[in-house]
């Protein structure tokens, strides 16, 4: 990969951008909201973790605690650590590529109970907002390729759901990015223009700069502009479960799912062994030729060489039952990225083809308070027991009461209004993009992790891309951005990165 002369990979981890002539900042991250201390890590919390809305819906599903065999297999060709959308998709493509090889998928807790089972239910490809950040970090060519890959990922996910008739509450429609401040709208307009001038594809994005029209389209009182393009919301656990069930049924003798099995470390046996790796778990050891790390935020706990590269961060999602004034024919019909003046963001998933429950995620000001608290309590960095965090919920309530006409004065009966919030662990990458490939200095160990809170818009292409690499294909055949590849040079460079500013001037 040839980077531009001005590329600076440290900027990949910033969460907002600004211009020289304004104090406002534009959010360029869908979830992650502030810099985190590097070097902290942890294993999945055992007991007491919060229960997401998605996991609440499937409490009777036998896949939650599935073990294909009562005893942990002693050997396998490949061990995949993690049963979220990454590990599950890697298992699917691995079995398709090598139907004769055995695969064991390890999950520390319930099936798909990590980040995939705890997110806000979006598959929203970034189609312009992150361009300037990626351009400054990696150069124009890679920036355009990152955004194109997110579009490709979304299309692959939708195609799979439709082709396989997956019952996962899929919605396809316009997502709206809505700046609420004139200065933020100015930055957004500049970024969009630069992306278009650079050759970025924008013909599928409808832009409205008239605040009056923007308010009509978005139904947000102080909207200054609207950027609309196709995206999706869905029930992520149900999608992942469909893929896993298919793999287990098609390859009953080759695929083994083992829940409640925490992988603790990976070592190498003595030279006389015919297999390359030993995965040590709390139920015993598994010898194998290949290990895939699909644990995202927990990766460095198992493989210490990833410490400082991938950092776990708790993040909140709020569930709201809208008042009757915002239901039925008046229900919200779009997903949103609401861009606040201080670089914060609300993501909104209205589940408008399902139950109409509204999910609020994103990096609102209250999330920043939680981030600051975690900085002072790093031992809680992998703790997803947080629920009903007042600072986060308060910001959400203030937003809907101010911006959604009639929400504040609506009559809330029992069962309406704020209902619940839960936490999940984001795997923050030190340069803002995932790590895909064979871990340097660790032969036979592969990784697809560090999705930086944006995994649903990356994994449906990153997972099959990794399997191609495992099969000997060159990086170019993956179709992924070059900057996703984990290489010795990238690792060495990033291990020398210190915390940088949260905001970049573009």
**Oligomerization status of the protein chains:** single chain
- Helix tally? 12
CATH class category name of the domain at 53-113 and 237-309 and 442-473: Alpha Beta
CATH architecture of the domain at 53-113 and 237-309 and 442-473: 3-Layer(bba) Sandwich
Strand content: 15-25%
Which overall shape is indicated by the principal axes computed on the Cα atoms?
A: globular
CATH fold-level topology of the domain at 53-113 and 237-309 and 442-473:
FAD/NAD(P)-binding domain
Number of DSSP E strands: 20
- Helix fraction bin: 25-40%
Instruction: Flag low-confidence runs.
Output: 1-6
Protein name: DAO-domain-containing protein
InterPro entries: FAD-dep_OxRdtase (IPR006076), FAD/NAD-bd_sf (IPR036188)
GO cellular component, one term: cytoplasm
Organism: Zopfia rhizophila CBS 207.26
Describe what you observe in this structure.
With 506 residues, the protein is an alpha/beta fold. The chain has a domain at 53-113 and 237-309 and 442-473: FAD/NAD(P)-binding domain, CATH 3.50.50. It is 27% helix and 23% strand. The protein has twelve helices and 20 strands. The chain has helices spanning 53-56, 85-97, 131-138, 140-163, 182-197, 211-218, 236-250, 299-302, 365-376, 390-403, 459-470, 488-495, and strands at 16-18, 26-27, 75-81, 103-106, 122-123, 171-179, 206-208, 226-233, 255-258, 263-267, 277-281, 284-293, 310-321, 335-339, 345-349, 358-363, 417-429, 435-438, 445-449, 503-505. The strands form three sheets. Strands 5, 6, 7, 8, 13, 14, 15, 16 and 17 form a nine-stranded mixed sheet that branches. Strands 3, 4, 9, 10, 11, 12, 18 and 19 form an eight-stranded mixed sheet that branches. Helix 3 crosses helix 4 (140-163) and helix 4 (140-163) packs across helix 11. The two termini are 23 Å apart. 53% of the residues are buried. The model is unreliable at 1-6 (pLDDT under 50). InterPro entries: FAD-dep_OxRdtase, FAD/NAD-bd_sf. It holds the Pfam family DAO.
